[in-house]
């Protein structure tokens, strides 16, 4: 059984990503980085990526090829404030999933991954936009 299956599969990742984007649409710092006409596409891509990373369907690769996260995000100005905001919104989304559906060990593994990704995508060293 994969991590994806252990945490509830599609339902869990749908909830996480839905909660994340519900908050992201209202964010004043990194929300504007998303094109107004592609919120649904962005949500699908994150869901596909996270699902694939944790052992679920290979939908991301089938539709988009290799994830290449740094390359795909290089045109965005991402500093520490943006990475921290992304993590804060992701933490809020993770917090909506009850422990009965996502135990501490799985939650910690997911959070560790989110922190690594956020740090990896920083491409601006100053503290301003």
UniProtKB/TrEMBL annotation:
Gene3D superfamilies: Globins. This is Group 2 truncated hemoglobin GlbO. Keywords: Heme, Iron, Metal-binding, Transport. InterPro entries: GlbO/GLB3-like, Globin-like_sf, Globin/Proto, Hemoglobin_trunc. GO terms for molecular function: heme binding; metal ion binding; oxygen binding; oxygen carrier activity. Pfam families: Bac_globin (PF01152). PANTHER family: TWO-ON-TWO HEMOGLOBIN-3 (PTHR47366). Belongs to the truncated hemoglobin family. Group II subfamily. The keyword Heme applies. The lineage of its organism: Bacteria, Bacillati, Actinomycetota, Actinomycetes, Mycobacteriales.
């Amino acid at each position: 059984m994969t991590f994806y299956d252990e945490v509830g599969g599609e339902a869990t990742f749908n909830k996480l990503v839905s909660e994340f984007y519900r908050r992201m649409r209202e964010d004043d710092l990194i929300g504007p980085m998303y094109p107004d006409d592609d919120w649904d596409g962005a949500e699908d891509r994150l869901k596909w990526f996270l699902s694939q990373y944790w052992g679920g369907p290979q939908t991301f690769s089938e539709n988009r090829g290799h994830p290449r996260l740094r390359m795909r995000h290089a045109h965005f100005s991402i500093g520490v404030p943006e990475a921290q905001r992304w993590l804060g919104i992701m933490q809020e989304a993770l917090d909506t999933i009850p422990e009965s559906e996502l135990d501490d060990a799985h939650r910690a593994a997911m959070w560790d991954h989110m922190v690594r990704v956020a740090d990896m995508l920083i491409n601006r060293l100053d503290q301003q936009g």
